[in-house]
Amino acid sequence: MPHATQHADVAAVVGAELESALRGGPFHVALRAAIAARGLPLQRVQHHLSRHGVKVGVTSLSYWQQGARRPQRPESLRAVRALEEILQLPEESLIRLLAETDERTGGERTAARSYRSLVAASDVLDRMLTELRLPPDGGLHTLGHHERVRIGPRRELSGRESQHIVRAHKDGIDRFVAVHHGDPGCAPERMRVHALENCRAGRVRAHHDTGVLVAELLFDTRLRAGDTFLFRYCVEDGTAGVCREYVRGFGPAGGQYALQVRFDERALPVRCHRFAQHSAAAPRGGRQELALSGHHHSVHLVEPRVRTGIVGIGWDWE
Q1: The domain that contains 275 carries what CATH number?
Q2: Mean pLDDT for all residues in the chain
Q3: pLDDT value for 5
Q4: Same domain, 237 and 146
Q5: Would you say the pTM of this structure is higher than 0.70?
């Protein structure tokens, strides 16, 4: 009987530690407490992850719960979501702590969009694509993508223009799915999509809470596997407040990407910089100061071959 009481006392302490860690973090303490509460050795955790289709080494799991390393790559973030289920934790409890750790230690995480908002936008986008019966891939590989972003006189994201060069990797492709994620406070239902070259606008869907706009761009031809195609479109925004950065996320590695940000002459920033992230939950790196051009008031970056992750340009107003 005393043994049962002692066991109950230990379980209560472990449960209390887990509850406290999930509430206040940090991430590695909560992960360690969750694994201890379930009484699972790391080899079993790894086995459960593999059954979820996620491959993570025991060494990585050990580093994560020690705080020596943090999950950053897309596969690692998938593992964190799977761990929430395996360890019977509330949805997004570990993801939230991971994001909060970034905000405390990353220094340069965006004040405009938290990781949770990006996750929410991703979930909304998946639902919108499903409702429209559109595959996220679309049967196209991007060979080149050039974006021109305009910042207006109120320091707002006025709009952007995109030119894509794509190659079909299967027959019958006749459209592209354009996605625009406005700044906090935007009104995507008031945005406008204009087809500029070799395409026309199709169905458009907007989600107010996340600021996501999805638009079909219909080609004037059906592509066969191996065919290349060039098209251009723009999104008129101007519905949010002060904009401080523009980011672009990439899934699979692809072709060239160029981003140009042009500022209204009545609203010029004091400094601009380039940055990169392995994922939305990872700390930022690759910072490089960018000089504003004298006549056109613009800055740019070029990625000769994009890799999975995020690149962007940020700026300070004063």
Answers
A1: 2.60.40
A2: 82
A3: 40
A4: yes
A5: no
